[in-house]
Design goal:
Layout lengths: L19 E6 L7 H5 L5 E5 L4 E4 L20 E2 L2 E2 L2 E6 L17 H11 L9 H37 L3 H6 L19 H8 L1 H21 L9 H5 L15 H35 L2 H27 L14 H21 L14 H29 L11 H28 L16 H8 L1 H33 L7 H14 L5 H26 L3 H4 L5 H34 L1 H14 L15 H19 L2 E7 L1 H12 L2 H4 L2 E6 L3 H8 L1 H4 L1 H11 L1 E5 L53 H13 L26
Parallel strand pairs: 1-6, 1-7, 7-8, 8-9
Antiparallel strand pairs: 2-3, 3-6, 4-5
């Protein structure tokens, strides 16, 4: 069944010390309620088609059972009835729809948004903290400008300016005949300004689409109100911002950034059209009046960009409360003003200029070169700020010594460059027919800066190949060194060489996750150096690498030509693979699930640096979980174990932080296959570092974590429990048995990251957590709960 129950039960009858609930939260990739509850029949208790809570039919009214009555199955744990299983399914928030695979095209925006949350931990909100956030937001703004500039390069420069202005190219593409000066006999659309005005509709439509998607996804995914704080929570000083009431509801910042980035995109299109015409008028090619109008237009565009910068730099996130206020009229009117400037630019460029001919390229080299320079400078300054923050509160396990944010920002800029360069290169090749753009063919081709960037791709790939070989050799050595440990872990029975190597190899490959900082650091470092070299080469020579190397030794000239050709194809191939992966996800469920996993990890964090990033599913999932836990414990007074696997453990921890201190003490946390410390603690130390995880353990009191050495994602949480019970259980045996046994006559599989509940240790730890939870106060009668909120087991007040 997949229906919401309407009838509210009369109220809990079982004593609070016997009533227990296990709230299951699945991990990446998603699953079904039937699989989570081990029952093909499930009933939706509360929620909708995107995310909901499910139970077995016999457990729908489990709170109404008379005291002492066992559940239908009669299962008990530790002398008490076993907890009521309840499944929270959130997979449709990320990987449930094939169309969301096209969010791969927003990958650079998602990556730079991750960099915002990788800030090193700081005990106070200092100027360095605010400066870090501002620098990442500026880096996100450059990505919007880069994407829009790439769209303008394709539509305006390559198509409307170069190809349509060249007889051979326009003749090859008949759909350009009506705008070609020679093929249309100098028709109305044949003048360069009018061609540019017509072509500018494509990048303007792209900006409008991004604005629409950002606004629509906010309403669908991120508009869930968080749990309202009580007086006790207001007086508490939390160890992490995840406990703040407004952390999962940043509507005002998203709206402000959406207005600024939309205006920036429209202003970029207006500048590409208007400044081209103004440059011709300034050179004496038109009437004086047009020259004056062009200068006024350029001044208005400069003022518009200044306002965009002011809005982006002005203020970051406000997490003390749910920030649902609206910005001032100036911010709200910014996109409309930019649209008006774009319309004026189109009218200005469409003015008749009979003597204007399109020759060479539009000034894209300056635009792309300036963006590369600004991005590199932002990354360097961001690295300095991150280093200062790390020195103030050093944590040894932080990835890249606190420089993870700058490194990931560099990767986001590199991804943006690959995508923009790939589109420009492939469109240039297509328009140029059999020729190679820039080498004596029909059209000059893309800007020189993009060609220099492409030439560095083979060098980067060679460096990564060397790194991969190094990691492969080290993994092989670890496998050999781990064979004696396998023998010690499984001392009984004869040992098989193949089985032993398989177990040792799985363990050593699982440790590759811990090498991610090395991979990210090497890639970011090489990208920064190659970007600087490409910028210097493009501005120093003004020519593509192959032409700049002419006159040198044959080896140097040939190497430049090979690097340029390979880089052009690699950069185009990368973009084509990205698009085809999105298309494949429409038809292939397994591909759709794989791509969904990327978003499960990458879109956990709210949109704080870029409004066009894929939406944050946690802004819906975390309020769902916190509302459910708070209302159930308040109305029943029972004990609750929230059981999270993989990414579900991160959602569970975030939801526990949103509870009031009194509610946290009624909740136990069971995590397994959890990346809380291994990934989130190392890469996001300000929010999941040792201090915050220790505070969570102190607040909820009951927490147990299960992990395996064969798990490539989960690991220990490394919380210092002091005199209390340890959080981490020793690594579980995987496989459960080395060979065939009486209980396992067939070979036991190596489970790795999956099926933790199949291990007997899972039920044992759950029973111990329930036994440690203290009975709550007597539950209020339905309709008279705290704060006058009428709740029930069947329908949550959330």
């Amino acid at each position: 069944m997949d229906r919401a129950t309407e009838a509210a039960p009369p109220g809990p009858s079982a004593p609070a010390e016997e009533l227990a609930l296990e709230l299951l939260v699945h991990g990446v990739g998603g699953t079904t309620p039937a699989e989570m509850l081990d029952d093909p029949r499930t009933v939706r208790i509360t929620g909708d088609e995107r995310a909901a809570v499910y139970r077995r039919p016999e457990d729908v009214h489990a709170e109404d059972r008379p005291p002492g009555e066992a559940p239908p199955e009669g299962a008990e744990e530790g002398g008490r009835p076993r907890p009521i299983p309840e499944a929270y399914v959130w997979s449709n928030l990320t990987s449930g729809n094939g169309s969301r695979a096209l969010w791969l095209l927003l990958l650079p925006f998602m990556v730079v948004n991750l960099a915002h949350w990788m800030r090193p931990s700081s005990r106070h909100r200092s100027r360095a903290v605010r400066g870090y956030g501002m620098l990442v937001r500026l880096a996100g703004l450059t990505l919007t400008l880069l994407l829009t500039a790439a769209a303008c390069e394709v539509a305006l420069d390559l198509t409307a300016w170069q190809c349509a202005g060249t007889r051979a190219c326009a003749a090859e593409h008949s759909w350009l005949g009506f705008v070609s000066p020679e093929l249309s006999d100098r028709g109305w659309w044949s003048q360069p300004g009018r061609r540019l005005a017509l072509a500018s509709l494509a990048p303007a439509a792209l900006v409008a689409l991004l604005w629409f998607l950002s606004r629509r996804t906010w309403s669908a995914y991120e508009s869930a109100l968080p749990l309202p704080p009580d007086a006790e929570a207001k007086e508490e000083t939390s160890a992490t911002a995840l406990a703040e009431p407004g952390f999962w509801y940043g509507r005002r910042l998203v709206a402000r950034l959406r207005a600024a980035h939309t205006a920036a995109g429209l202003l970029t299109v207006a500048a590409a059209v208007g400044t081209s015409a103004a440059r011709f008028d300034r050179q004496g090619g038109g009437p004086v009046l047009l020259d004056v109008l062009g200068r006024i237009l350029e001044g208005a565009l400069a003022l518009g960009f200044a306002l965009v910068l002011w809005v982006v730099c002005r203020r970051g996130r406000s997490e003390r409360r749910a920030d649902d206020r609206r910005d001032g009229r100036l911010v709200r009117a910014l996109p409309a003003a930019a649209l008006a400037l774009l319309a004026l630019s189109l009218l200005y460029a469409s003015w008749s200029r009979p003597h204007w001919d399109s020759e060479g390229r539009l000034p894209g080299d300056f635009t792309f070169g300036s963006l590369v320079l600004v991005q590199g400078a932002l990354v360097v300054v961001l690295g300095v700020v991150a280093y200062v923050l790390q020195r103030r509160a050093p944590e040894s396990r932080t990835a890249l010594g606190g420089l993870g944010g700058p490194a990931v920002t560099m990767l986001a800029c590199a991804l943006g460059g690959v995508m923009s360069g790939g589109v420009a290169q492939r469109v240039g090749d297509w328009l140029d027919g059999a020729g190679t753009p820039g080498q004596g063919s029909w059209i000059p081709g893309p800007p020189v800066m993009l060609t220099w960037q492409a030439s560095g791709i083979p060098v980067l790939l060679l460096a990564l190949l060397v790194l991969f070989v190094f990691l492969a050799v080290r993994t092989t050595r670890r496998t050999r060194a781990g064979i004696p440990r396998v023998h010690r872990d499984y001392p009984d029975g004869p040992h098989d060489t193949i089985r032993t190597r398989r177990i040792a190899g799985t363990r050593s490959r699982a440790r590759l996750t811990d090498e991610a900082p090395l991979l990210v650091g090497v890639t970011a470092g090489f990208t920064l150096l190659l970007g600087a070299a490409a910028l210097a080469g493009a501005w120093a020579t003004g020519e593509v690498p192959a032409e700049a190397a002419r006159g040198e030794a044959d080896f140097v000239s040939g190497g430049a030509q090979v690097a340029q050709a390979l880089g052009s194809w690699f950069i185009g191939l990368g973009f084509v693979l990205l698009v085809t992966s999105g298309r494949r996800a429409y038809r292939d469920a397994s591909a759709r699930r794989t791509i969904g996993i990327l978003w499960d990890v990458g879109t956990f964090w709210p949109r704080a640096a870029h409004p066009f990033a894929p939406p944050c599913y946690a802004e819906r999932a975390v309020p769902d979980l916190s509302w459910r836990m708070a209302t159930w414990t308040r109305t029943t007074g029972g004990r609750l174990v929230i059981s999270g696997h993989s990414q579900g453990s991160v959602l569970a921890a975030a939801a526990a932080w949103q509870l009031s201190p009194r509610a946290r003490r009624r909740v136990a946390l069971l995590t397994y296959g959890s990346p809380l410390e291994r990934l989130y603690g190392r890469w996001f130390p300000a929010h999941f570092g040792p201090r915050t995880l220790h505070a969570l353990h102190r607040d909820i009191d009951c927490w147990r974590n299960l992990h395996r050495d064969t798990d490539p994602i989960g690991g220990p949480v490394r919380v210092d429990a002091g005199e209390g019970p340890e959080v981490d259980r020793p690594p579980l045996r995987d496989p459960l048995a080395y060979g065939r046994t009486q209980l396992l006559p067939l070979p036991a599989p190596i489970l790795g990251h999956s099926e933790y509940q199949a291990d007997p240790a899972f039920a044992e730890e759950r029973a111990l957590l329930l036994a440690r939870l203290r009975p709550a106060v007597p539950a209020p009668r339905p309709g008279t709960g705290e704060e006058g909120t009428q709740t029930s087991t069947g329908t949550s007040s959330g």
